[in-house]
Specification:
mainly beta, Immunoglobulin-like, 50 strands, about 5% helix, 9-stranded mixed sheet, 4 domains, 3 helices
């Protein structure tokens, strides 16, 4: 075993306050989560946080039973202690001596493995905090690590020839609103001179694999300005000269179609229509719903995942972007499938930017049903980056959004969204009109016996209006309460949103944010016009559950996770990404858990093995879980203590 001093100060920092006795000991072993074999040469890092100080300022063990202590180490940078790192021996074992009473997080890292942590029972799962008392010796610590997986194959074109130098992406499955959603993960792969690709470093799970292609174009006049070094509302990123008419771009009428590192399609047809290779999912479909889902485990090397790409004819779509003022140049316009909110993946078909006069052209759009979207003056930045999907990007610089001293945007946001079906013929008269950003306003109300917080404290409460859909490209929009409790959030495109209220004043909890009889802090707000009159209610009555999870033998089960979800099955497919009513808690090593605040209502509650808790929000999984779960009814202010037995999901 080798001990590594991270820095001279690392081994000299004082222990947590009052911890004069350093006689604790931790003995553990790092194991391969797939094979169970020891992992030698793993780097072990340990961080300690003290227990709460007692009457004399000395560190004391908590008054609550250990089972009820939190399983996540608080991030207290000023009272935490970092110990020197060490390497495990060939048998995967490690020993950490001279430890004070504290709460410890222990992590393990090694090239060729995903990060491991104490209490983690599945790749990407939650970890636990190890509680160590004065002079205590913990000799049964096991840390599991899993090997990343890889996917490889060959990309072949319509002639059976290998396709060189194109980007291949893997998309990992997650669950949003009870439905499967896929998101890009890890570094992309690129085909070599044999058309072969390999994507490595994948967390075990379910994936789609695709040759990603987005048709990116810029006005020819903009490209000319760039070559001449003149002023322009365009900034070019990675694709550089390509967007300006370089070797990897072609001119189509008055547009420059950038090719980046995408496959080059056949020559234009006699009617000047361009052929392109659309995004293609394994094995050979452009529809992600029909794509093959690949499951990879720890250390798996999935070979032979080939893709067959075929060129498709395109049509030209051009038009003009208008609005309430003349600032319509250099604004990014993106084209997405019309059903993007219901699609399992955020798929961009094409992107361009407007000319100085607001005109735009998409020279190569495949036949399909689309949404044309534009946003001017995003609140988070004055530039919009347009990604090519094949390794390139450029930034359209719009009018910077007006900002207040409190950091929230005014009505500088302008947006447009128009559906359009692209069929047999070119379209030359598409009109997009920018509309001013929408508003969400309301007020705060307080229920309870506590004194209402001061206005200055209420102004510090974070407010965010975030898209309810994971495939939305609209950034979360900050809002604020003023000293009188009036809520304001400005500059929102039409769409579905959820109102998030964070860090309420001490002793208060967010009960609801009601608009038109609907709690929009949990259920999506369908914003088509200004939403005026949202009532945000704070209560001083905490609703929570806590308790202990036990094995069949009656002892605490530290390997379980507690799940809580509504008994109303309709809610299983209509909730948003961060619903307050779908909760999970990794238990402490002694089996304790605590969940709150949680809205009153009718729920199911169950403790399951941590290994079975991945993707538990899937509607089909919830159906299976509900069969072994217990009903739970919570009224406002309830504090229920539960005694649960771990149940297997069949």
């Amino acid at each position: 075993m080798i001990v590594i001093g991270l820095s001279a100060a690392a081994g000299q920092q004082p222990g947590p306050a009052g911890s004069d006795s350093r006689t604790g000991l931790i003995v553990g072993q790092v194991l391969d989560g797939g094979s169970g074999r020891p992992v030698g040469g793993a780097l072990i890092e340990i961080v300690a946080a003290p227990f709460a100080s007692g009457a004399g300022g000395s560190a004391t063990t908590p008054s609550l039973p250990a089972a009820f202590l939190p399983s996540v180490l608080p991030r207290g940078p000023f009272d935490a202690e970092w110990f020197p790192a060490m390497l495990t021996g060939s048998d995967g074992r490690f020993v950490i001596r001279r430890l004070p009473a504290a709460r410890y997080t222990i992590t393990a890292a090694k090239p060729g493995y995903l990060a491991g942590a104490y209490g983690r029972r599945r790749p990407g799962g939650a970890s636990q905090v190890l509680l160590l008392g004065d002079g205590q010796k913990s000799g049964a610590v096991r840390i599991f690590m899993w090997r990343p997986a890889s996917i490889s194959g060959v990309v072949i074109d319509e002639a059976g020839e290998p396709v060189v130098g194109i980007q291949i992406r893997a998309m990992r499955r997650g669950i949003v609103a009870g439905q499967r959603r896929f998101a890009y993960t890890g570094a992309p792969g690129w085909t070599d001179d044999r058309g072969m690709y390999r994507i490595a470093g994948l967390t075990p799970g379910d994936y789609l694999v695709a040759a990603v292609s987005t048709q990116v174009s810029v006005p020819a006049s903009t490209a000319l300005e760039m070559r001449q070094g003149g002023g322009s509302s365009m900034a070019i990123g990675e694709i550089g000269a390509s967007a300006a008419g370089g070797a990897s771009s072609i001119r189509v009428a008055d547009s420059i179609l950038t090719l980046g590192r995408s496959a080059i399609g056949p020559a234009p047809s006699s009617d000047a229509h361009v052929y392109v290779y659309p995004t293609t999912f394994h094995p050979n479909t452009s529809n992600p719903v029909r794509a093959a889902v690949l499951t990879v485990g720890s250390g798996d090397e999935r070979e032979g995942i080939d893709l067959h790409i075929r060129p498709v004819a395109t049509r030209r779509v051009s038009g003009v972007l208008g609005g309430a003022d003349s600032q319509v140049g250099g604004i990014a316009i993106r084209v997405v499938p019309e059903d993007v909110e219901d699609s399992p993946i955020d798929l961009e078909v094409a992107s361009t930017v407007t000319s100085r006069t607001g005109t735009f052209t998409f020279p190569a759009l495949p036949v399909g049903h689309y949404l044309f979207q534009a946003i001017r003056g995003l609140p988070v930045a004055s530039t919009t980056t347009v990604h090519t999907g094949s390794g390139g990007s450029f930034s359209a610089i719009g009018t910077p959004g007006t900002r207040t001293p409190f950091g929230y945007g005014l009505t500088s946001i302008w947006w447009a969204s128009v559906p359009l079906a692209v069929g047999r013929d070119d379209i030359d008269n598409l009109s997009l009109r920018l509309l001013p950003g929408l508003r969400v306003t309301g007020r705060a109300e307080f229920e309870g016996t506590r004194q209402k917080p001061a206005g200055v404290r209420l102004m510090q409460v974070p407010v965010v209006v975030e898209p309810a859909s994971e495939t939305s490209r609209v950034p979360a929009t900050p809002g604020r309460f003023d000293s009188a409790g009036q809520l304001t959030a400005y500059g929102l495109p039409a769409g579905k949103y959820v109102l998030r209220i964070g860090a309420p004043p001490q002793g208060w909890y967010v009960k609801s944010a009601v608009y038109n009889g609907r709690d929009v802090s949990d259920a999506p707000l369908e914003l088509e016009a200004d939403a005026l009159g949202v009532i945000v209610t704070f209560t001083d009555r905490l609703t929570e559950i806590s308790g202990t999870v036990r094995k069949a033998t009656g002892s605490g089960d530290g390997d379980a996770t507690v799940l809580v979800f509504p008994s109303d099955t309709q809610a299983w497919t209509t909730w948003n990404m961060n619903s307050k009513r779908f909760r999970s808690a990794r238990v402490t090593p002694a089996g304790g858990f605590q969940i709150g605040p949680i809205p009153p209502g009718d729920y199911y509650v169950v403790a399951v093995p941590e290994e079975q808790s991945a993707d538990w929000q899937d509607a089909s999984m919830l159906d299976a879980i509900s069969r072994v779960a217990a009903p739970l009814t919570l009224s406002e202010g309830d504090k229920k203590t539960l005694d649960l037995r771990t149940r297997e999901i069949r």
